[in-house]
Amino acid sequence: METELCALAPADWRVRSVDDVCLCVTSGGTPSRRDSAYYAAGNWPWVKTQELQDGWLDDTEEHITDEAVASSSAKVLPEKTVLVAMYGATVGQLGLLRRPMTCNQACSALIVDPAKADFRYLFFQLLHSRSQLKGLATGAAQQNLSGVLIKSLRFPFPPLPEQRAIAHILGTLDDRIELNRRMNETLEAMARALFKSWFVDFDPVRAKAEGRDPGLPCDFAALFPDRFQGSELGGVPEGWEVGRAGDLVLLGGEKLNPSQFPDEVFDHFSIPAYDEGRTPKAERGEDIKSAKSMVLAESVLLSRLNPRFPRVWLPSLAGRRRAICSTEFLVCVPGQPVTREYLYSLFTSQEFAAEFATFVTGTSGSHQRVKQESLLAMRVLQPPAPAVGAYTTMVAPLLAQIQESIDQSRTLAALRDALLPKLVSGEIRVATDEVKVE
Fold first, then answer.
1. Considering its fold, how many domains does the chain have in total?
2. How many other CB atoms are there within 10 angstroms of residue 89's CB atom?
3. What angle is formed at CA 135 by the lines to CA 134 and CA 137, rounded to 5 degrees?
4. Residues near 122 by Cβ (< 8 Å), separated by ≥ 6?
5. At what angle do helices 350-357 and 340-348 cross, to 10 degrees?
6. Residue 62: which CATH number?
C-alpha cells in the first residue's frame, strides 16, 4: 500500500514513491551504552533526532567508533542522505548529511538514487508535506512513523533537470540562511570573548598590574585600574563595586491575552522558536491561547525555564507590530549604568548561567524555573559607566550586524516558504537554465 501526499501535478511529472527513487531506505542503531569505549574518541558522527533541524548536518554531539558500528545496527550513511525523525516530539523533522555519518534507530535514512531524483528535491517535498506526515504518525503514548510508511510515500517528480533547478532555488535560500547563522555565531563568540576578557578575567587590569601593555587604545586602557581589591565575588578591579542584579535590571513585560485581539498580528518570541533557532513567529491573536508578556524596546529576554539550558534573546522590534513573549521569559530592561549590550553579554556568559542555575526550583527538567526575585537578588559586578560605555562601543556594531542578519534571514525564510508549495507542486515552473538566485 502506498501513501500519496500530493495534489494534481503537471502532465510531464511522474508520481513516484520514496522507495522507488531511493537506492536504500534504512534506519540506524544505538551501540550499547554499557561499553563507554564505543563513544570515546569515535570517528563517526552519530545523529540523534533532536539534532535534525531541517537543514544540513555538519557534525553531531556524539561520535562512535568503527567497533560500535560493527557491534550494532548502526551503519555508515553516505553524504547527501536525507534523514527523517520517526518517533516522538521530533517526528517529521529532517536533516541532510554533509558528510558520511551514522544515526540512531529513531531516524529513517533515505539514500537517494541520483539517476532518479535530486536528494534536495526529495527533502523539500518532505518538508512541504510535514503536517500531513505528522498526521500519519500513530501511537497512543508516542506518535511514530514506520519505515514501511516512509517508503510508501508518493510525491510528484518533474524531470531530473527541473528537480535540480527547484532544489537549487530553494537550497540557495536555505544556504544563505545557514551562512547568516554561522556568521552570527562567530560575531557572538567575539562579543563573549571581549566580555570575559574585560569583566570576568579582568585582563586589562591584570596586564597593568604586571606592568604590561593591556593592548588597548590609550583612552580605553585608562578606564581600567592597575590593582585589585577584595569583594564578595573575590578579587575585582579597584574602585569597581559589587551589588545586586536588581540594581542593573528593571523587569517589565505587562501581561497580555492575545485572544482579546483576534485580528491583530503579533511577533511571538517563544521557547520552541528559540530552541529551534527560528525568528519570532507572526501569529494572529486568535491563534494564541495563553497569556503572554509584552516585549519592550531595548529589552533583553531571559528565560527562567530549565536554566541548565540558558536561553537569552535580544529581540528586534523594528516597529513592525506589537511583540509578545512566553511568560517563561523575563523581560529585562537595563538600568544605569549598564546598557542593553552589556546586559545581553552578562546573561550569555558562562559564569552568569552557572550562578543563575543554582536558584532553580522544581524537581523535573521541564518544570524547573528560577523566580524573578532570585534574579534580582543575584550578586553581580557593577563596572563603572565609562568601562560599560567603552564595551558597548566595541560590541554594539557586532550585535547590530547580527540583528541585520537575522532580519535578512527572516525575509529569506518567508520567500522560501512562499515559493516552496508552488515549486514542488508545479504551480510555478522553472526553466532548467534559470536556476540562479540573486
1. 2
2. 10
3. 65
4. 18, 21, 82, 110, 112, 155
5. 70
6. 3.90.220.20
User: By residue range, what is the domain housing residue 239?
Assistant: 183-386
pLDDT at 435: 46
pLDDT of residue 366: 57
Across the chain, which has 438 residues, the per-10-residue mean pLDDT values are 68 95 96 94 95 94 96 96 92 96 96 98 96 81 84 96 96 94 94 97 97 94 96 94 94 91 92 81 89 93 89 82 92 94 96 91 71 93 96 96 89 93 93 54
Rounded Cα distance between 205 and 176, Å, is 41
> Do residues 72 and 216 share a domain?
no
Place of cell 511514530: 144
Check whether residue 153 and residue 188 sit in a common domain: no
> The cell 485572544 sits on which residue?
259
Cβ-contact 79, 97 below 8 angstroms: yes
| Co-location of 73 and 207 in the same domain | no
Query: What does the alpha-carbon distance between residue 222 and residue 219 come to, in Å, rounded to a whole number?
Result: 5
**Do the bridges between strand 82-85 and strand 228-229 make them parallel or antiparallel, or are there none, so unpaired?**
unpaired
pLDDT value at residue 438: 37
At 360 the pLDDT is 87
